[in-house]
Each structure stands twice: as C-alpha cells, then as structure tokens.
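We modelled each protein-ligand pair independently. The example shown here corresponds to the adenosine-5'-triphosphate entry; the chain sequence is given first, followed by the ligand as SMILES.
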Amino acid sequence: MNAGRASTQIKAMLKELGLDPALVRRVAIAAYEAEMNVVMYASRATMTFSVTPEQIRILVDDQGPGIPDIATAMQEGYSTATKEMREMGFGAGMGLPNIKRNADEFAVESTPGKGTRLDITIYIN
Ligand SMILES: Nc1ncnc2c1ncn2[C@@H]1O[C@H](COP(=O)(O)OP(=O)(O)OP(=O)(O)O)[C@@H](O)[C@H]1O
Ligand SMILES: [Mg+2]
C-alpha cells in the first residue's frame, strides 16, 4: 500500500509550479482525504489531476461499496471506520467535510455496490 503517495506527488508538483503555498495546502488536504477514503473504503481507484491557469481539478473514481447516503456521509463526525482504522488515527468523520471546506467546487456521486466519484475544483485566483 502506498497510502498518501498520490497526494504527496500532487503537492510536490504544485510547489514546483510555484503556486501560493496556501493554495497548495488546500489542494493537498483535499487530495489526501480523498486518497485515504479510497484506501480505507474502496478497492481501487483512479485519481486524475489537472492544472490550468484558472484552476486545479482532482477527479477520483473508485470501485467499491459506494456511499448509500451522501448527505449523511458529508456530516462532520459521521464515520463507519472500523476499530482498526480508528487505532491508526482515522475515523473522525472529517475527511469529506474537510474536502468541502478546502474546495471551491465539490461534487460527490455514488452508486451503491459500484463505486464513488469525487470531482474537486480549486480556483487559482
Ligand atoms: N470512497 C468511499 N467509498 C465508500 N464509502 C466512503 C468513501 N468515502 C467516504 N465514505 C463513507 O463516508 C464516511 C465519511 O467519510 P469521511 O472521510 O468524512 O470520514 P472518515 O473517513 O470516516 O474519517 P476521517 O476522514 O476523519 O479519517 C466514511 O466513514 C465512509 O462510511
Ligand atoms: Mg476519510
């Protein structure tokens, strides 16, 4: 498992582009939370990362159980994390709310039994 690797690489690329550190931090937090959710709850995923002069976009498409009730999952403190995940420091139920807080646009689509897709956009200026 390379948990955190994708978001670490995204952060490094944005730093190299010379983007505002506060902006880089917002993207890194959103990417990290999305990546950790895939690692904990899904079986596999693709993360697509794109940068234009206007915006940074992260698409995360996973195959997994999906999220049956997105509104509930978006609530602060809601978590289905197992005891093992909690022992590793996960399960505060703050990942999705944190993505929302750091994103300018955030859409979640999910099909139970199939998977989940996150579309995260952060504007550059
Ligand atoms: N990709 C996903 N596939 C299936 N379920 C998910 C996925 N992402 C989140 N969930 C569900 O939504 C809940 C809330 O997610 P969120 O990231 O906010 O909190 P958490 O992962 O439980 O805890 P934290 O992120 O604070 O460690 C999860 O507990 C899980 O039930
Ligand atoms: Mg999470």
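Residues 33, 36-37, 95 surround magnesium ion (ligand 2) (CB under 6 Å).
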